[in-house]
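Form 12-C: Joint structure prediction
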Amino acid sequence: MTKRVYWTWLIPAVIVAGAFVLHADPLVALGIGLASGLSLAGSI
Amino acid sequence: MLLPPERNRSQLDFRIVQAYLAGATCGALLTVMTVWLIGGFAAPLPAVARTIVIAAGAVVIWMCQRGPLSGKLALPQNRRQIPQAVFGSGLVKGAYRFGFEMGTGVRTYLPSPAPYILLLTLLFGRLTFASALLVAIGFGLGRAVPLMLQLRKVDRDQVTEAFLRGTIQIPPTAASCVVLVGALILV
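Section 2 - Result
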């Protein structure tokens, strides 16, 4: 797994984790949307 | 192929990417808001029941796409490429339409379990309007990132290869876990 692929889920994971710590639910929502969209990145 | 494989990008290339991003976000907004409104019917369910539905559903979805049920139980998806006819009215308008169809998530292949888990979250998560809006923006942005990356001076073959490899190995499962954990936080 190269770095380029790694970040497609790691960046959303960091956003979700950070939002959880900060109790910022809208940011969690942004993170899961981003994770979901990026998981389809190969199909473009 | 929305952008030509050139190293120096023109203004048109940036407009194409902007149009694609706008289209993907609008498409995601349409799907997310529709599902979010339908999800209102599940609002009376207690939080425990909604959590169980999302968690159990996520496991079933993963098993259908990546696990032992793969090939036996097919999840609903539109098994087709988006037709080239969307570019009939020009590259920028075509990029918007192409992005819109990709953003809806219902007009082409879905090779990852994560969007299905996201759908469950929207149906049973009882998200606020702002959260639903941000889910759509995040999804549209995620859909547009691969094209945005091509604006940089990178080897597009390498990027494409890396992304394609990413769709068949660990990242889709990891992304699904991120969506599931986020969903459980939001419930």
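Section 3 - Comments
The two ends of chain A are 19 Å apart (CA to CA). The first helix of chain A runs from residue 3 to 21.
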